[in-house]
Write a structure and sequence with these properties.
The structure holds two protein chains of two kinds. By secondary structure, chain A is α+β, with helices and mostly antiparallel strands. Chain A has helices at 2-10, 17-49, 60-67, 69-90, 110-139, 142-149, 194-197, 234-239, 247-260, 271-290, 342-345, 347-361, 370-381, 387-390; strands at residues 99-100, 103-104, 158-163, 175-179, 185-189, 198-201, 210-213, 230-231, 310-317, 320-328, 334-340, 400-405, 411-417. In chain A, the strands form five sheets. In chain A, strands 5-4-3-8 form a four-stranded mixed sheet. In chain A, helix 4 runs antiparallel to helix 5. The radius of gyration of chain A is 22 Å and the shape is globular. The two termini of chain A are 35 Å apart. The mean pLDDT of chain A is 93. Chain B has four helices and five strands. Chain B has a five-stranded mixed sheet, covered by helices on one side. In chain B, strand 1 (7-12), helix 1 and strand 2 (41-45) form a beta-alpha-beta unit. In chain B, helix 1 (22-33) packs across helix 4 (138-161). Classes of the chains: A alpha+beta, B alpha/beta. The A-B interface holds A 33-34, 37-38, 41-42, 45, 55, 58-61, 64-65, 69-73, 75-76, 79-80, 83, 92-95, 374, 377, 380-381, 384-386, 388-389, 394-397 and B 14, 16-17, 20, 44-47, 50-51, 54, 57, 90-91, 93-96, 98, 102, 105-107, 109-111, 128-131.
């Protein structure tokens, strides 16, 4: 989708309103199945089974065994609904060829719209159920709330997310808003302006870059006021916005912030709650769009007429703000590409969060149990990172070097794979 | 319902990664030949884990066609049972990384009547995936016909057992 929007800009073509709505509908369905998978398969096991539960049980099968097999069926059903909506529109849910410069290749008829409406209604109810489950299992357990709000899982940074004209969260379109560590707006940019706001720091020990706020500058891996580090993922999106554009999600947003003490929330595990607020928003938006008369219109594409040149497309991926920047020659052949993928934005924060959690959880002299290691992993998991996306590595041969140091800082083991 | 309606053949791989795309090439060959009984679903997919398993919703038998790494025997065709697939785990850290066996266990656990009791894999050995290259190496290309025949035989076996 980001690539499609970058291509709109490369070819200088305006997308008709019907095509924009179709794209947003398709994209809302993508958020629905992605967020359901993360919550039930990755977040819920830590809370439903407990962070120190036996790993053989701390998984999605254990979760449904405890909360009810029918919930597992509902997970599959609603993920399937979302993917069926995508396949109906674009031929297939994953790797579709449907978004074209200036619009989309296929529209939607009234019968298809009715099918989407029925599935979307069910998704809204399932999202509400998921929020209730979170409340019952997590929020009513003081121990879990204490863990979520503990200092080891707190990271104070700036935040970023795409917003509409009313500063409400938007996954498909709008401007990127940046707020500081106190939640105050410090920048807002259109896709074409991203290089004025974001730059990418390089470290010799990683081939994934570390984006930072250009106007503040690279301040190292430091949190707190004045840091150039920002986060971009579900919690960051909510922190960077003034609310949600659909009524039920707005209620859930208000409840989250009133419970957690106002904006911004720096508790990284609250990302799981934010993800469910977004699941409700995506489901409601799916329903709204399915009821929009204009979405079955015939005008689904404007054929590009200009000479291709350069363009930037930005959307919100489930894992953070996704930027595609292309330059082409006059024939439209690509001459330069830059991608800042959702996970890439969070690269620095992920390292910082893991280190902070490890230092808070692992005490000198104490045995490092499997449960403690999992609690460190929970810091990582809250971002739902995808490093294959972020590093643009596709072919299973990621060069990797792991150096293990002893307590005195001396290297004791050096493991390498695919390092020439 | 047609005879093979509950049998799905799913071709896996990335056609931009050279020999990794052999699963899709076998699927294309089966479609060209038209020799698979009517009703059997032929599905192209470049996905894993939960998303892959959800494609199997409604199937009684599934045959996956995919490459596997075996540097010395490029082009060898081998049938794998589900139990021979390596476990990946549930907690890969992110939602793109849940293993096939684990996703299948979950799906069967919660909706046993809607997911296949048996999944087999027809694997084609490759030396390594290509990098931004289309087309297959000669030994892997030569194995497409044999792999297609293996899939056909597997489909017939599945139909008899249904």
């Amino acid at each position: 989708m980001a690539s499609g929007k970058a291509n709109d800009a490369v070819f200088g073509v305006e997308v008709p309103p019907t095509a924009k709505k179709l794209r947003e509908l398709f994209y809302s369905a993508h958020f629905v199945h992605s967020h359901i998978a993360h919550f039930y398969a990755l977040a819920a096991p830590d809370f439903v089974m407990g962070p120190d539960a036996d790993p053989a049980e701390r998984n999605i099968l254990g979760v449904v065994g405890k909360v009810g097999l029918e919930i597992g069926g509902a997970v599959i059903k609603h993920r399937a609904y979302a993917q069926e909506i995508q396949a109906m529109l674009a031929g297939k849910a994953t790797h579709p060829v449907w978004v074209l410069p200036g619009g989309v290749s296929k529209g939607m008829n009234r019968e298809e719209r009715s099918q989407v409406e029925e599935k979307a209604r069910s998704c809204v109810e399932f999202a509400r159920f998921s929020l209730q489950l979170f409340e019952d299992v997590v929020l009513k357990n003081k121990g879990y709330v204490d863990v979520i709000l503990s200092d080891g899982y707190r990271l104070v940074t700036n935040y970023m997310g795409l917003v509409d004209d009313n500063n409400k969260v938007n996954f498909y379109d709008g401007r990127v808003r940046i707020v500081d560590t106190d939640g105050l707006e410090i920048g807002k940019y259109s896709p074409a302006e991203y290089l004025e706001y974001v730059s990418e720091h390089v470290e010799s020990w990683s081939y994934l870059k570390f984006p930072y706020l250009k106007k503040i500058g690279w301040t190292g891996f430091n949190e707190g006021r004045g840091t150039g580090i920002y986060q971009a993922a579900p919690l960051a999106r909510l922190n960077a916005s003034d609310g949600m554009a659909t009524p039920l999600a707005q209620e859930a947003y208000e409840k989250m912030y009133s419970t957690l003490g106002g904006k911004p929330v720096h508790a990284i595990l609250a990302a799981h709650w934010a993800r469910l607020v977004e699941l409700l928003y995506a489901s409601e938006r799916l329903l709204e769009l399915s009821r929009d008369e204009e979405i079955t219109g015939d005008h689904i594409r404007n054929i590009p007429a200009g000479t291709p040149n350069e363009g930037v497309g930005i959307i919100e991926a489930p894992r953070g703000t996704l930027t595609h920047h292309y330059k082409t020659d006059e024939r439209g052949l690509v001459t330069a590409v830059n991608l800042i993928v959702g996970t890439t934005n969070n690269h620095g924060p992920i390292y910082m969060a893991i280190k902070k959690a490890a230092m808070a959880i692992i005490k000198p002299g104490e045995e490092i149990s499997q449960g403690l290691l999992n609690m460190v992993e929970m810091a990582f998991r809250s971002y739902d990172p995808c490093f294959s996306c972020a590093t643009h590595t596709m072919f299973g041969e990621m060069p990797l070097q792991v150096v293990v140091y002893d307590a005195a800082g001396e290297p004791v083991k050096n493991l390498t794979r695919h390092v020439d | 319902m047609k005879a093979g309606a509950s049998i799905y053949v799913i071709g896996l791989g990335n056609e931009l990664a050279g020999d990794d795309g052999v699963g899709v090439a076998v699927l294309n060959r089966l479609q060209e030949q038209g020799s698979i009984p009517p009703g059997v679903k032929l599905i192209e997919a470049g996905i894993t884990g939960l998303s892959l398993v959800e494609l199997m919703l409604g199937a009684k038998q599934v045959i996956l066609v995919d490459s596997f790494l075996d540097g010395g025997n490029s082009g060898m065709v081998r049938r794998f049972t589900e139990q021979e697939l390596p476990p990946v785990g549930y907690s890969a850290g992110q939602s793109h990384g849940i293993g096939l066996r684990e996703a299948l266990a979950f799906a069967r656990g919660v909706m046993p009547q809607h997911f296949p009791g048996e999944v087999v894999v027809v694997g084609i050995a490759i030396e390594r995936p290509g990098r931004w290259v289309q087309g297959l190496s000669p030994p892997v290309k030569a194995a497409v016909e044999q792999a297609a025949e293996t899939v056909r035989a597997e489909v017939l076996r599945c139909m008899k057992s249904l």
